[in-house]
Design a protein that fits this description.
Elements lengths: L2 E2 L2 H4 L8 H4 L2 E2 L1 E7 L35 H18 L5 E2 L5 E3 L7 E2 L4 H4 L5 H23 L8 E9 L3 E2 L13 E3 L1 H8 L4 E2 L5 E2 L2 E7 L8 H4 L13 H13 L37 H6 L5 E3 L4 E6 L8 E7 L2 E8 L9 H7 L5 H8 L3 E2 L6 E3 L11 E8 H7 L14 E3 L35 H4 L28 E4 L7 E8 L13 E5 L8 E5 L3 E4 L7 E4 L6 E6 L6 E7 L4 E9 L4 E10 L6 E3 L7 E5 L2 E5 L4 E5 L8 E3 L7 E3 L10 E3 L10 E9 L8 E6 L3 E5 L11 E2 L2 E8 L8 E6 L4 E4 L5 E5 L7 E7 L2 E6 L3 E6 L42 E3 L7 E8 L4 E8 L4 E6 L7 E8 L6 E11 L2 E11 L2
Length: about 950
């Protein structure tokens, strides 16, 4: 298909109209205007409307034949009405009875004061813009002066002018460079050009927008075509109908977003949607329907939500049902899938008819075989049984939708202004992803879209980009090209398989190797995954318009407690006797505390006791191991509540959520315990150390990362950099890691190894999973609002619970327990570190671990380097420094050696000359010693 000429869209401005959302029918006022007669060869025709063809090369296969009189344009109103009623499934159309074509006389038109070229001078963009505004203004004022139409009675004004539109970049020399482009004009454009947001008329009405269209897009009706198409076989195949351009600009007028690059004119989704190259399908007689997102957004269709694990059946788009499938990546990102079929009869389309008969042109095949509706009086094609007939093939189309990009781009009508960051993107099955990129092809232009962009069994072009799938069924998944990753590059692990051959009914399967079938569920809000009834299977607890629970076997939320409150707190207490669910809601000046237990013989949760407390909601709820009571955590107090009593305790015994390390602060941060339980406790107070001054941490957790006897501290600063350090605040190897993390951290078992994984959200909303050494294992597709809730077990597998998703990984090893499984440590929110029982103090015979003993940075360019020495049972570490000639330079000793741990010492080299130095690191215990030699480059 020919490419749309750029100039035509440089005047298309940000969306103003939203008529489509408000009205089922709209009325149109069409105004016919002609120009002063001229013999200027730079424009098509002489300025008047065609009443007979200047050329008749196409005989009975002429598109939009003359006479171009009042009946002709009324037929085009019927065509545009039939198009929109069809693609909207009856939800939107043109009120033909209330619409009007002026002048009233059959063959008349309003004559403007200038020639065609005077309104659109060649190669002068400034004059062209002002010329188009003045053309629009003069046309409106002329129609009013002669016939006084009530402009306010019409929703859309269309100016039909004599001649051809400057709308197609023909592949030949086009001598008619001053033809007027078709465009949608709005108030902003008028304000820029004529210093007024609209054309004010004597009856106090004002026209602020409208469409400019030519009488025809068919060059073959004019004598200039002999020059334009000289030497071309079958020039009649280059005819185009007006309906496609009309439908496209009607889309602009009613507020449908443009899907091409509105700055450059390059295609965004090609021939597969009206608001791009699809307007020209079927040579402009069968414009493509809008894309599925636009149809849903306009309120014309609904989607059906598809869960992983489903086999999806879709009837073709032209059926009367809602046949759009939605497969969720995250609440703001998803795939829309539809079945588009261009068959005239089973397995026969326009192209197959064309190529099965010698010398049959596309126009002939289309008009003879596709059952188009034609107005007998005018010869105008006014409708089609299926507006997908103009597509190049049949099959599944998969659209990648990004609502965040849509929100950013829709205001300025630039959804697809960047090829690499499209808001509405077509996942091209052939893997070329070439829509919108330069191409020298014409009617099989891949930059506009090809049959091979559709998904169906037997699409051999898929294997060109995916050679490993040769002789296999096509698949759309994490390892294909294109792939199912999110737009941030995060992995979704979604797979689309089992595509059937193209047909009026098609099917495919959706699966996810790391997601529980049926998830994600953006409309729910999950909070906890815990076994309340001791059946070795965790129940799901969530809140969405009330507190609910669901079993693991089959997700089906059951209400526990109705609530209209959006602010609440959840927790678990009494876990070692009979786990109880705690639910708090804010009722203005007081909070209500509700305690529930699971009743096995009733298979439901029932209230145990209820209490009230006058205050706002606490930071979080603290549970107890074997008591039916809860504690409410406030910044300056802890409130303990039982069924029949309540008391306050000054201060909080729990770890501060924020750890701010600024010199001379009284408290850097602490991990504390509930008194009397004898659990491991770490307290950091009044400590400052190199590299951490003036850093504010947004989260702090304690864990055991590497299987030794020590405790590790994980902290994320406000920039999202993740730190891991041992008890003496020495940063571990592999850290810090700049992952742009946001929010809290979880630490626990996901892959079955003794060393746990670290989970956090990122600023972009994705989920990072890192190993204990700081390496990123997975980047999971998610969204900012999809909070990570806890690490747990689901149906025997390690699981990560988020607000809307259940990710599952390796089989659970119940001997390895979660380390910091929830935002506040454990299911009771106690913010204390439970040292795993499986950990035993490692026996290290070696005095120094050579592979973990080094200095950094090396070379040294900033004046300091740090020696890191990992020792076993050593109690002394001495470091002797020599220059390259062997002369002694310095001796240092680590004052207090931590056995079975990492020890660090900073060396100041600012006074040394540049060169290579030798460090002899000696670790000893009694009479035993072991050395490691390091070479250090110093650059001063």
């Amino acid at each position: 298909m020919t490419r749309r000429f750029l100039i035509a869209y440089l005047f298309t401005l940000p969306i103003q109209g939203q008529l489509v959302l408000d009205k089922k029918e709209i009325s149109i006022l069409g105004i016919r205007v002609n120009f002063l007669v001229d013999e200027d060869f730079s424009s098509t025709g002489d300025g008047s409307f065609l009443m007979v063809s200047q050329e008749d090369q196409c005989l009975g296969y002429t598109i939009d034949p003359p006479p171009h009189n009042r009946s002709y344009f009324e037929a085009h109103l019927k065509a545009i009405d039939n198009y929109f009623r069809s693609v909207s499934k009856g939800s939107f159309g043109v009120d033909l009875e209330s619409s009007l074509i002026l002048p009233y006389e059959m063959n008349s038109s309003y004559e403007l004061s200038g020639t065609i070229a005077s309104y659109y001078p060649y190669d002068d963009s400034v004059s062209q813009a002002s010329g188009m505004a003045n053309f629009f203004k003069e046309s409106i004022e002329l129609a009013y002066s002669l016939d006084q139409p009530k402009f306010n009675n019409f929703d859309i004004i269309v100016i039909f002018h004599a001649g051809i539109g400057q709308d197609f970049d023909l592949p030949f020399i086009d001598p008619t460079q001053t033809d007027i482009p078709s465009m949608y004009i709005d108030s902003e454009f008028l304000m820029e050009q004529i210093n007024s947001p609209g054309i004010e008329l004597p009856d106090l009405s004002i026209v602020t927008s409208g469409i400019i269209l030519p009488e025809t897009q068919n060059h073959l009706l004019y004598s200039v075509s002999s020059e334009i198409f000289s030497g071309i076989n079958n020039p009649c195949d280059y005819q185009f109908g007006l309906t496609g351009t009309f439908a496209l600009l009607m889309g602009n007028a009613i507020g449908l977003p443009s899907l091409w690059n509105t700055k450059t004119g390059e295609s965004g989704v090609g021939i597969f949607a009206l608001m791009d190259q699809g307007s020209n399908n079927g040579r402009g007689l069968i414009p493509a329907p809008p894309d599925p997102w636009t149809r849903i957004w306009a309120g014309w269709e609904n989607y059906k939500y598809v869960s992983t694990g489903e086999l999806v059946r879709l009837n073709s788009r032209d059926s009367f049902k809602d046949e759009i499938a939605k497969v969720v990546i995250s609440p703001d990102e998803y795939f829309l899938v539809e079945n588009r079929n261009n068959w005239i009869r089973p397995r026969v389309d326009i192209d197959s008819i064309r190529w099965s008969t010698d010398d049959l042109t596309y126009i002939q095949a289309m008009l003879d075989s596709s059952n188009l509706l034609i107005d007998d009086d005018t010869g105008v094609v006014i409708g089609s049984s299926n507006y997908d007939l103009g597509l190049p093939g049949s099959g599944i189309l998969i659209w990648h939708i990004d609502e965040n990009r849509i929100s950013d781009g829709i205001i300025n009508d630039n959804l697809n202004i960047n090829n690499s960051e499209r808001a509405i993107d077509l996942e091209e099955a052939d893997g070329a992803q070439d829509i919108g990129y330069p191409s020298s092809f014409l009617f099989t232009d891949p930059s506009s879209g090809l049959w091979s962009d559709m998904w169906f069994e037997g699409n051999e072009q898929f294997a060109i980009a995916n050679p490993s799938f040769a002789n296999r069924q096509i698949s759309f998944g994490p390892d294909t090209y294109p792939n199912t990753h999110s737009n941030s590059g995060a992995e979704t692990f979604l797979e689309f398989n089992d595509f059937t051959p193209a047909g009026e009914t098609m099917s495919f399967s959706v699966s996810n190797s790391f997601m529980v079938n049926g998830f994600p569920k953006p409309s729910i809000n999950m909070e906890l995954l815990y076994d309340f009834n001791n059946d070795q299977s965790n129940e799901i607890i969530g809140f969405s318009n009330g507190l609910w629970w669901s079993s693991s076997e089959s997700f089906s939320p059951i209400e526990i407690f109705p609530s209209n409150y959006s602010d609440y707190r959840l927790g678990i207490t009494n876990v070692e006797l009979a786990p109880q669910l705690v639910f708090l809601v804010d009722e203005g000046n007081k909070i209500k505390i509700n305690l529930f237990s699971y009743v096995s013989n009733k298979e439901s949760f029932e209230m145990v006791w209820q209490s009230e407390y006058v205050d706002s909601l606490p930071s979080y709820i603290i549970g107890y191991a074997n008591e039916s009571k809860v504690a409410l955590d406030y910044p300056d107090k802890k409130v303990v509540i039982t069924a029949d009593s309540l008391w306050e305790e000054e201060g909080t015994s729990l770890m501060l959520a924020n750890w701010k390390n600024i010199p001379n602060d009284d408290l850097v941060g602490s991990v504390a315990h509930i008194p009397g339980e004898g659990l491991n406790v770490l307290t950091l107070d009044g400590t400052t150390f190199s590299g951490f001054d003036d850093i504010t941490f947004q989260s702090l957790v304690v864990a055991e990362l590497d299987g030794d006897v020590g405790i590790e501290i994980l902290a994320s600063d406000k920039k999202g950099t993740l730190y891991a350090m041992n008890e003496n605040l020495t940063i571990l190897s592999g850290f810090p890691v700049d992952i742009k993390g946001k929010g809290h951290l979880l630490v626990g078992q996901l892959f079955g190894t003794a060393d746990p994984e670290i989970v956090t959200k990122t600023l972009s909303g994705d989920i990072y999973i890192l190993d204990s050494k700081g390496s990123i294992l997975f980047k999971l597709a998610s969204t900012i609002g999809d909070d990570i809730k806890m690490i747990s077990v689901y149906n025997g597998k390690n699981a990560l619970l988020t607000s809307s998703s259940l990710w599952v990984f390796k089989e659970n090893n119940d001997e390895i327990k979660a380390v910091w499984e929830t935002k506040h440590g454990d299911v009771m929110n106690r913010r204390i570190f439970h040292k795993p029982k499986y950990l035993e103090p490692p026996i290290k015979d070696e005095l120094v671990t050579l592979t973990k003993t080094y200095n950094y940075p090396n070379p040294v360019e900033e004046g300091f380097t740090t020696f890191r020495v990992t020792v076993g049972n050593a109690d002394k570490i001495i470091i002797n420094i020599y220059d390259i000639a062997g002369f002694f330079i310095d001796r240092m000793q680590i004052p207090e050696v931590k056995t079975n741990d990492v020890n660090e010492l900073i060396w100041d080299v600012r006074d040394l000359e540049s060169g290579v130095y030798i460090a002899n690191i000696k670790a000893s215990f009694g009479s035993k010693s072991k050395n490691k030699i390091l070479k250090i480059a110093v650059i001063n």
